[in-house]
Amino acid sequence: MGHTLADIKNPGSFKLSSSKSTLLIAITVIGLVALGGGIMVDAKRGWSSLLLNHFFFMSLALGGMFIAALHWLTSAMWSAPVRRISESFTAYLPVVFIGFAAVVIGIPHLFEWSHPEIVKGDLILEHKASYLNVTFFIIRNLIAIGLWIFFSKKMVGNSIAQDANGDKVYTNRNKVLAPIFMIVFALSYTMASFDLLMSLDPHWFSTMFGVYCFSGLFYSGLALTTVVTVLLRRQGKLDGIVNENHLHDLGKYMFAFTIFWAYIGFCQFMLIWYANMPEETMYFMHRMEGKWLYVTVFLFFAKFMVPFFALLPRDAKRSSSRLLKVGIWMLFAQWLDILWMVQPEFFKESAHIGWIEVAGFVGLGGLFCLMVLRFFSKHNIVAIKDPQLVQAVYYHHQ
Q1: pLDDT per residue over 100-135, tens digit each?
Q2: Which pairs from 44-49 meet CB under 8 Å and 24+ separation?
Q3: Burial 330-358 (b: 16+ CB within 10 A, else e)
Q4: Of 144, 148, 300, 373, which has the fewest CB atoms closer than 10 Å, so is most exposed?
Q5: What is the pLDDT, as a whole number, of residue 398?
Q6: SS3 sequence of 257-276
Q7: What are the Cα distances from residue 6, in Å, to 10, 53, 166, 386, 390?
Q8: Average pLDDT, stretch 304-328?
Q9: Stretch 42-59: mean pLDDT
Q10: What is d(CA 189, CA 213) in angstroms, rounded to the nearest whole number?
Q11: 16-32: pLDDT as tens digits
């Protein structure tokens, strides 16, 4: 018996109760105020917390855009029921402008290359000064953020517009935009990774650093997509649309990109360590000395070993409970990884995880949640008239 879109019940939008919304807004404000207080109390910890959490949530928003673009680029069928969830993360991209503006204020506290007296006489920094200067830093990053917002408005806008009449023209438009976005994304996100994270140590460089940051972006983007999918499914909003087969596919992606992250991380480390060039190996030496060694070892187990073995069995990939727990753990591991990239440039002895770092996470995380929930309150949580939705909903593994 053939199925049609009429057979699929539209779950509609999703809206938190007013009391929960008020609570979330209050928590967000408290987090942002606490972060501001942290910057005044301890500038080094406060600004590094801002940078850490800005990059983390910026990457989640871009990860959602990347997953959606990948759907259109490959004409994927299975992901149609959950694609709108990934699209919702892009609602945070306008806030990235504000976050970056805050980072710009903190440039003197974050980046040593912004101080002329430090650059002068340092041959490496003088050589990089044409690129690593405040004016060019601001201009290129603003252009990148503007491009991300432009593509998200166009592509997610086409997806939402299709909900009205199911016209395939919107899908075709996104199939044209997707490969262009992928090129822009690859170049701009690599640049942002170099600027915001790698230039914290302007004497160090790695040609694999952009790929390493991308692996974390996709890793955490998949984890968040899975977490939100499971939570909406528990609310009954995805009944008859998302089944165990879709969870299985999400679980396989999470498992695969856990391995991909470990592969890229090992390759970057191995090539630098084997070459044994002091200007390159010092980056890892800082992270393998003192108490940072414990963080480095824990990160390997937390970001690779735990999700690898937790998702290895077939049944684990079909268990919403297991996927929810592993997804939340993977998000924590990604946050810790970015902390591992940021904090050793400011604190050589050990990591600092306290109220200032938590405040940054709660403040920016609250903004992220508010923007995603605002998106869900205005739009269907499923691309209800996607041409591939029927096939995807009634899709089963053989």
Answers
A1: 999 999 999 999 999 999 999 889 999 999 999 999
A2: 44/109, 44/346, 44/347, 45/346, 45/352, 45/354, 45/356, 45/357, 46/356, 47/106, 47/109, 47/110, 48/110, 48/342, 48/343, 48/346, 49/356, 49/357, 49/359, 49/360
A3: bbebbbbbbbbbbbbbebeeebbeeebbb
A4: 300
A5: 42
A6: HHHHHHHHHHHHHHHHHHHC
A7: 9, 43, 12, 12, 9
A8: 96
A9: 97
A10: 9
A11: 889 999 999 999 999 99
- Do residues 381 and 14 touch, judged by C-beta distance below 8 A? yes
39 residue type, one letter = I
Residue 163 and residue 383 in contact, taking contact as beta carbons nearer than 8 Å: yes
List the Cα angle 215/216/220 in 5-degree steps.
120
Q: Supply the pTM of this predicted model.
A: 0.96
- Confidence (pLDDT) at 8: 80
**Model pLDDT, residue 396:** 58
Residue with tokens 């077939």: 314
**Alpha carbons 239 and 8: distance in angstroms, whole number:** 10
